[in-house]
Amino acid sequence: xxxxxxxxxxxxxxxxxxxxxxxxxxxxxxxxxxxxxxxxxxxxxxxxxxxxxxxxxxxxxxxxxxxxxxxxxxxxxxxxxxxxxxxxxxxxxxxxxxxxxxxxxxxxxxxxxxxxxxxxxxxxxxxxxxxxxxxxxxxxxxxxxxxxxxxxxxxxxxxxxxxxxxxxxxxxxxxxxxxxxxxxxxxxxxxxxxxxxxxxxxxxxxxxxxxxxxxxxxxxxxxxxxxxxxxxxxxxxxxxxxxxxxxxxxxxxxxxxxxxxxxxxxxxxxxxxxxxxxxxxxxxxxxxxxxxxxxxxxxxxxxxxxxxxxxxxxxxxxxxxxxxxxxxxxxxxxxxxxxxxxxxxxxxxxxxxxxxxxxxxxxxxxxxxxxxxxxxxxxxxxxxxxxxxxxxxxxxxxxxxxxxxxxxxxxxxxxxxxxxxxxxxxxxxxxxxxxxxxxxxx
Amino acid sequence: xxxxxxxxxxxxxxxxxxxxxxxxxxxxxxxxxxxxxxxxxxxxxxxxxxxxxxxxxxxxxxxxxxxxxxxxxxxxxxxxxxxxxxxxxxxxxxxxxxxxxxxxxxxxxxxxxxxxxxxxxxxxxxxxxxxxxxxxxxxxxxxxxxxxxxxxxxxxxxxxxxxxxxxxxxxxxxxxxxxxxxxxxxxxxxxxxxxxxxxxxxxxxxxxxxxxxxxxxxxxxxxxxxxxxxxxxxxxxxxxxxxxxxxxxxxxxxxxxxxxxxxxxxxxxxxxxxxxxxxxxxxxxxxxxxxxxxxxxxxxx
Lengths: 442, 301
Fold this sequence. Notes:
Oligomer: heterodimer
CATH superfamily of chain A: Formate dehydrogenase/DMSO reductase domain
Distance between the termini of chain B: 27 Å
Structural class of chain B: alpha+beta
CATH architecture of the largest domain in chain B: 2-Layer Sandwich
């Protein structure tokens, strides 16, 4: 691409996402944020109680249902929603869908928060968490265990590649914050860019491994998982569900943010994301139906029991979501697209939740329903992720926007809030004048 | 260079993944001195002496949580490694006691899933035992075990996993497991597995038609177990599922194990990804710098 500004090529120049811009002019601390903080605080207090009392008094888990929502929902379901760094990243970097790059920062942030909160809760869910130190001795790993694969791979992924991929927005903020920091920031950035291919490649390999191993977990449970879900293809289906769910999460969250903070939506990017998601959904549904038919268990889908209900709700939601996404591409209706993402992700969430909980039948008398404390802790750690997201988009350049938003932000800090020193994106007294100078001398 | 490695590596990795047959993990080694139990449900009188003896032998307080008076656990739990249950058919004509404890599988699913080898099978005696300082308390064993044997302690800050370890501490002293040492009718006996198997087959031969399918449960079931069962009623009624001769881990983790064999496939995939991303990154950087010149704003990667 030559030096021609991109906006000359585009008819809707003021709706093209060209730059990530912080959400400025909104306070971080508001009523909603305080509510989230209260939930987080409650969860932390209850966590302390759980560590002393054990899992029984705080949860609905029992001998038959050894796993509760902390694992089956917060980890198995929410990390699927948080696979954006994997799915959107592969579309952008491996298949070179260039438009997807403007969604990458959203994808990386949501993934990091989903994984970090999931892993924290995984540590709380573990009965003997102090023994996690074995993770640093590879020769003590049970290399053939899907759970070892999940635990090790997930921790490494969230702590190294995913965390490093999230550094650039932070460095960028430091670069703008004070000109004295710039040489140091640029040095770190150069070093970072030289290792990026290795980091990014790891960031696609590792989630591919552990998102499929999450499905492999329930293979060992054998007959106790209902035949509509128990299949040798469980790892592939789990990975597939993660891809379309994470597209839904990233694009849906971005649309929601644009609505809430009144940002323009770049329909070219969103259309492409919807197109990819619709194809992913189509492929996943085809594989799922083929698998059910080929194994000859289609009959069980027409019995009158709760498994049938779960199966059809799940399939209908995913299919309806995919259909709405296709329709939104034809009629350019943002509402259809948004609802399509919500429905398909909800269907995917039920799918990821089923083999461990809804379709798990360890013995006919056994029941599992999460206890109040269990639900509160689960909600608290979801709130932690949302609160982290709100802080990040308001303090860092995450959310994509048209170019003019950037200039409006600079003007905002220059003329309307010149007294903001620590929370503004620019240091007081610096308005971006010498930016291109530094750039050109680079 | 990396491309070269990747190109040569793909066929090599595929060959490793598909070609190495049979995998080490799939051929089940038989412990050299496998010991086990033989339980004959037709002799058992359901006196539950073994339940009390088991708790005593393992230094566990009696589980009196039912009525705060009697040691009467209804199932295996965090205080109960061994339990006697009663099966009664719906018309009430057919009934059988069953003693449930760890089956000591040749290829235990609990150990196959255990992330840090807290559950491991002794290569000599074949006893599957739990090690406190390797267990992270993930409770995957309670989900994977097809016999639903390992139980987690739900109360307390330092929970343990409870399962029958064939009283290995007593075996070292030359004593028999607690349950076999008190059984008044000899319904459960202890010994080397081959001897027990011979004994079971002798009983079947001497009483043709007495035992269900004239079969010893555990001879080949789930790849073979070291606890063997004889029964008059179908084994499934006693909570022993028909799993076929292939063990649960061998059957369900076949592809998982092949994909991760020697880590060959992931490494090759990684090398390929690095190559592709290098190229994309170069293009993306160039584009970002062009944009930077156009807008006068610092590039965002």
